[in-house]
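Hey, quick one: can you model this chain's 3D structure?
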Amino acid sequence: MSSQELFLAHDEEPIVALSSGSAPCAIAILRLSGNKCHELILPFLKFAKNGNRPEYGKMALCEFRQAQNGKVLDEPMVVFFKGPRSYTGQDSVELYLHGGTYIIQKAMELLLKNGFRSAEPGEFTRRAYLSGKLDLSQAEGIRELIHANSEHQWLAARQLAGGQLRNKIESLRSKLMESMAWLEARIDFPDEKETSAVEMQEVDSRVNEVAKAIESLRNSYDNGRVAASGLKVALFGKPNAGKSTLMNHLLGTSRALVTPIAGTTRDYLEEPCLINGRLIRLIDTAGIRESDCEIERLGIERSFELAESADIVLFMMAANDDGSTLEQFKTWTQKAGIPKTIAVLSKEDLGTPSWWHSFESQKIVTSFTEQDQKGLRDLQDALASQVDSYIKPLEEEQSFISNTRHKEALDRAYASLERYYQGRKAGAYEEMLAFELLDLTKQLGGVIGKVDSDDILGLVFGSFCVGK
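Sure thing. Here's the predicted structure for all 468 residues.
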């Protein structure tokens, strides 16, 4: 048997997994799918109505019995699905048991001893993809729907799961196939009046439409990434500027270690949090200063890297600073290439220094004492506004990209486009132009899962939870 045949056989084996929350819970759902799963489960079930298996897609009450001695374990509801009219596209069953720990463990034990194996993470959705029920982008959307903690994450996941990106990519592939068909006609029948009259401008026109759409999708990445993964916010400044204190107050918990000793934070800390319903990824970085400590110097280098890659930087300055930080701020922002900055003055209870008023950036004054949390609400509102500036353009788009895999596939597609245009400019033969359009079509197919690599599938489905 070939490796491909072994691969397909593996994806037809009967599998079982707990698809609901962990026990104890009110209802536990066991999901089963695969070849002969109906026949394998029937010996365990005795139906209350007429003793017959219910019609496909209809829920029925039954007894779940131990096949060996007939002892009743539970009285669940059960639904049988006939492939391809199921989530996986295969014959499937769902059992709705009482969610006691013993019941779940015993039911799983019985099934695993009688022909089923435990499902791998994401295996049900993987089978749905392999059965053509979903494309890869929709499968990724389902994964993100499960993990969504904010409305914006839900928005990014929903447009994937709903097929908007798939529809856009398929439309572009269709235009490219039309262009390739015209090129093939010119290649195969160069002397025919109908094909020789085909103007390359018609081919270019469709390719230009595809190029414009690809560029729009590529440009949507930063906005989509913020929706799906959150706004990346780096806390940046000198030691003891109040970065860790601010992080703890934004998180609402003492996550970062705070001491009066300068240089306490040697490495960065990253934590997600919801601010006004928006997802934020806070990064507390090592304080910037000259240091003879190799470990601290490495942490400072990392601080600049994190600031450069952040969506926005909170530049922290303490009220008892001597004012030299102003010039250092200009140097640091130029060095790190920081695009967006909010200046935050900490320890305002010590007084507001005169140099603060000359600061030209957006600025917020804070002070965190036992009696007050001054400026916290203003800062939260400012960060929420920054998230909204990324998300608002997405509300007008029917499709956008939100993860690195999509971006990399589109970057490869754009490289094929550039080679096509270079060939047109150099007067390349139709065969070479058709080759570049074929490669472009393949790269676009990679976005929605029209790929040959099992590594990509493993990367996507391996991050699912078991039972999905």
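One thing worth noting: DSSP finds 17 helices and 16 strands in the chain.
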